[in-house]
Amino acid sequence: MTSRTFATLQKNLLDWFAVHQRDLPWRRSYLPYEIWISEIMLQQTQVKTVLPYYQRWMERFPDIAAVAEASEEELLKYWEGMGYYSRVRNIHKAAQRLVMENGGTFPREHAAVLKLPGIGRYTAGAVMSVAFNQDFPVVDGNVERVFARLFDMDSPVKEKESQKRIWETARALIPAGKAREFNQALMELGALICLPRNPLCGECPVNSSCESRRKGTVEARPVMAKRKSLQAIEVALGLLLCQGKVFIQKRPPGGLMPHLWEFPGGKVEEGETPEAALVREFREELELDICGLDKITRLRHNYTSFKVTLHAYFCTLKDSTQQPVIRTAVDARWVTLEALQDFAFPAANRKLIQLL
User: Fold this and answer.
1) Which of 23, 30, 74, 121 is 20 to 30 A (C-alpha) from 227?
2) Predicted confidence band of residue 1 (pLDDT cuts 50, 70, 90)
3) What is the helix, strand, coil percentage profile of the chain, to 5?
4) For the purposes of burial, counting CB atoms within 10 Å of the CB of 76, is it exposed (0-12), middle (13-18) or buried (19 or more)?
5) Is 166 exposed, middle or buried (CB count within 10 Å of its CB: 0-12, 13-18, 19+)?
6) d(C-alpha 170, C-alpha 186), whole Å
7) What's the mean pLDDT in 62-91?
8) H or E stretch covering 172
9) Is 49 helix (H, G, I), strand (E, B) or coil?
10) One fold for both 3-220 and 231-355?
11) Rounded (10°) CA dihedral 318, 319, 320, 322
């Protein structure tokens, strides 16, 4: 693109954003704490999903100090349902560091922001440009798609050279002193107009600058690397009932979905029925003998790298005097069904609770 084309693209995009930007709560004051939390929430999660979580979070944790003082258990509960729980743990660590080292305020220096737990190039650029209006680029999936089409990029956008080109272009395109509006405009364009499927090219404010539209390759851009197939696993879990309460346990700090609560159970091995797997898991993990298995439902849930078919059962103890022996969990409790709402569970477990 020529410098004149760059200038036209910048003006058209900024003019469009001034009229069509969504009214989002973190855009009202552009406070760095609010931008930080919104950007972390928006990773791997759509705006419409984030909005109720964001509102609830801000009501309970209005500033960095409130996050730092909260327990991890409470933070996980407020995050429950969005997944990728390492995000909220890093928020907690960063907030505690900011209270200890920076008086509970968010730093204004890019290098300092990058040192915070859970913050990489994208989030640092978002905070610096959107909260502080400093000229740092921001590249998310929306921006990748916009640039892949604007410049008709025929290489996978996640490849190293493609990423280098996109980030350099994103930096070069920022109009001096207008990083806040321009970066948001790029992301908004991808979210509202330059859609993954059936993009609204006729409504695009920069369609005159779009190489893929000129060449008829819009639907073929961006080029994506071949996706890995999800590993399929079957899991059996049991709602162990005793005297009107159900047994739950807390996952250990290492491994998958750490510190979340769950119903006991485990993977169904090859050649094993879900019922047999559940009996085995209770015996191996808790030294409990269960009986009276009554199937509740079968649920399916997809995670990032695997998909689960979940077989859920009510069950009881063969001997009501038995006590569980906790092996891998870090905590365990007997709670009422109503009290399950107070604990943070993995998404598949939460689906089951909602069904109950």
Assistant:
1) 121
2) low
3) 50, 15, 35
4) buried
5) buried
6) 9
7) 95
8) helix 160-173
9) helix
10) no
11) -120
Q: The whole model's pTM is what?
A: 0.88
3-class state of residue 318 by DSSP: coil
Distance in Å from the first CA to the final CA of the chain: 58
DSSP code of residue 225: P
Give yes or no for a contact between 136 and 168, defined as CB atoms under 8 angstroms apart.
no
Residue 158 CA to residue 223 CA, distance in Å, equals 9
Structure token digits, residue 158 = 């996640």
Which residue is listed with tokens 């003082």?
A: 69
**CA distances for 121 relative to 21, 173, 174, 266, angstroms:** 24, 17, 16, 37
The CA distance from 8 to 262, in Å, is 55
Entry field: residues in the chain: 356
What integer is the mean pLDDT of 223-238? 89
Strand 245-250 and strand 290-302: the pairing is unpaired
Contacts of 171 (CB under 8 A, 6+ apart): 135, 136, 137
* Two tokens, residue 237: 């879990």
**CA 145 centroid distance within chain:** 19
Q: Where do we find the tokens 């009276």?
A: 292
CA distances from 322 to 248, 264, 279, 284, 330 (A): 16, 16, 15, 14, 19
Active-site residue set: 39
Which pLDDT value is given to residue 129? 98
Residues pairing with 129 in the sheet: none
What are residue 334's DSSP bridge partners? Answer: 247
CB within 8 A of 150, min separation 6: which ones?
A: 9, 206, 209, 210, 211, 212
Which CATH superfamily hosts domain 231-355? Answer: Nucleoside Triphosphate Pyrophosphohydrolase (3.90.79.10)
Classified as helix, coil or strand, 46 is coil
Domain limits, the chain: 3-220, 231-355
Report the C-alpha gap between 180 and 128 in whole angstroms. 9
CB atoms under 10 Å from CB of 285, counted, come to: 18
> What six digits make up the tokens of 102?
């920076």
Q: Is the predicted pLDDT of residue 347 greater than 90, yes or no? A: no
Class of the domain covering 3-220 = mainly alpha
